[in-house]
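Posted in: Structural Biology > Protein-Ligand Complexes

Title: Requesting predicted complex, 1-deoxynojirimycin in pocket

I'd be grateful if someone could produce the 3D structure tokens for the following input. Sequence and ligand are given below.
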Amino acid sequence: MARWWRGSVGYEVYVRSFADTDGDGIGDLPGVRQRLGHLAELGVDVVWLTPFMPSPQADHGYDVADYLDVDPVYGSLADLDALLADAHQLGMKVICDLVPNHTSNQHRWFLDARRSRQARHRNWYVWRDPAPGGGPPNNWVSHFGGPAWTFDEHTGQYYMHLFLPEQPDLNWAEPEVRAAFAQILETWFCRGVDGVRIDVAHSLVEDSGFRDNPVLDPPPDDDRHGSISTFEHFQHAHDLDQDGVLEIYRDWHRIAARHDAVLLGEVYLLDPARLARYLEGDALHQSFCFAALRASWDARDIRATLRPYVEASGDALAWPLSSHDDPHAATRFGGGDRGARRQLAYLTLLCGLPGSPFLYQGDELGLDDAELPDTVAEDPIARRNPGTHGRDPQRTPMPWQPGPGVGFTTGTPWLPVGTNRTDERTVAAQTGVPGSHLERTRRLLLSRRRLPALTDGSPIRWLPSPDPVVAIERGGQVVVALNVGDEPARLPVGHPVAIAYATDDDVRVDAQTLVLPADAAAIVQRLPAPASSG
Ligand code: NOJ
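-- Reply #1 --
Done. Output follows.
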């Protein structure tokens, strides 16, 4: 069967902040549906919707209270059906977020589980007695700070949560949990959902002995969310990436195969070999490669960061440019016009790699993270680390048009739009404007679609290049090159080429040399050799 997701262009919709149709200041499914045309015109193939299931919103939907319904704040199942139908009509696939590592503490399974040690769903969660001297059973910590264990007075045991106490971890050693999720997948796929993005897909299974994690000394630099995280002070030898997790995905693979659906993992492992295991032998179809969010604006670093993943997993990778958990790429690369320019150049390189480039909403406008008033703290990470904004700056409303609600809402947006937002960085201001970030991004995605070597899994070759340039060749036909330097750079390509796409009007081909201005990238196509006259 053709694997439709290979080589596709993905786009993350953070539903809460994309488009609000009922004026409550919170994005909803009808809002996404209304804006599907924007995504189709941009050249998106796969739309990922962040969680819209009923949830107390302790972690903005990543605390699910019912896996099979839609939270009224986001709409209804009928709205989802209508959205799926329209997206399919426009030739796009839709994947939903599946959160199997943990539920909300308000899920009926957990409400039952904490009733007594004999409760029907007790073993669906991870319960342990206190340590012999009292206190948590081991040294595991939550991603969001503090211990990964909360004591339940009523039943006298701790339950485990790798995230908030409101997000108790499910016990995947329990066969009934596996059966419940098999049913959840069947239900969504039967409804017409084209696949799932699996939240913390490297988690789920823990060490059966619940051994302490080794402490890293010295601790690494861990300022990922501008917050103090103890999580990165440990080597997660026993709470993450345990062997048994792949078995779960092999079961899911069989279910997905029956529906031609894709399993896209959020496998947040920064080790190419460990990540590759999830993509082998009928486990996951695709995984994000989060290393792509960490490369600095340095040619050697970009090459050294990306290449081992490409070699290990090739076109099973999805390349995030930004996400709701990480800063916008424009901000990461310096912010403002320069950051936006670099972001587009980096996206061009990602478009040249085997696999799927994945944009996050607003990337197509060159959007920066929002600057927010000090008092704003919606993200649980921000709330737990006073004085920080956590992930709020990348989750602010999608700016559709100039004006107070930026075309996102007629009401008061749940997060302010940001004091640094400008009229220029809106969809309305950039649509149809030659040279705008939006039009350049659209041209990039359409150019990529027209070049089979970039989407059909053709072999990749990393070309030798002068230092500030990263250059790759696909299928012997197409060269994609990025100049991260402050000066123009020249890349000899060894044969006649034509420019298929350039981030900058000053990109040119001089004899058989590609000339790239600072912070620019281009895609060039090999021209057929001239017919010999002899
Ligand atoms: C990863 C999600 O992307 C993030 O937003 C969430 O907080 C955690 N998983 C917990 O579900």
